[in-house]
Amino acid sequence: MKIFEQTNNRINILAKIKQQKEAISKGLKIEWETDPNKMQFDKLRSYPGMVKMFNFEILRVEEYNITSHDFTDVFIGDIKSHMEMIDILLNGGKLIPPSKTEGYAIVDGVEKMVRPSDSVGLNDGAHRCNLAKYFGLDTIPVLVFKVIEGYWFTPDKWVFEGPRIREEEKTEYGTSWTEYNGVKAISKETGKVFTFKDGSSYIDDSNTDYLTIHVYW
Known about the structure:
Elements: H1 3-25, H2 47-54, E1 58-65, H3 80-90, E2 99-107, E3 110-115, H4 126-134, E4 139-153, E5 158-161, E6 164-171, E7 174-187, E8 193-197, E9 201-204, E10 211-215
Parallel strand pairs: 2-4
Antiparallel strand pairs: 1-4, 2-3, 4-10, 5-7, 6-7, 7-8, 9-10
């Protein structure tokens, strides 16, 4: 972009910044969309890189303290996202809250919460936190998504079979069999079975209390 075009572009931006600052000084507030059914995640800039997380189950909306969030002036530097959000508010719209996750695992066949949401930071929403601090907020709502963090097995409670797995499937036309490489976990107590295929699952060696198997998203 040539200097004359840059000049005109900057003049237009400065005029818009003045308009937005005036609106904020006159009492413009951040309105948050807290109804998951009305949240259009595909409109978020972070959506392409986090589409899988946005497809997870939403557990709840909870309060999040942003007093420790590193603040930068919303009208200096990377301002486009901030100004777009202010435009949404000026037009009567609402902002989708930032998001974080809560971890659950299938522990010996039973789903349990293994990582509370307050043990980690946000997955996305840095610009929204920054805007909220500019507006003088100390707390904001955040979405908590449910993430399954693998299958956890106490080794002596399970029998593990493989590497060739043969499964029976009954249909209205009779019985058929499928075979694949992987591992089958069979509970010694209940007989419950979990199967994991090669190429779609892997062992996590960070857990020293359980044999942990993750399935790729």
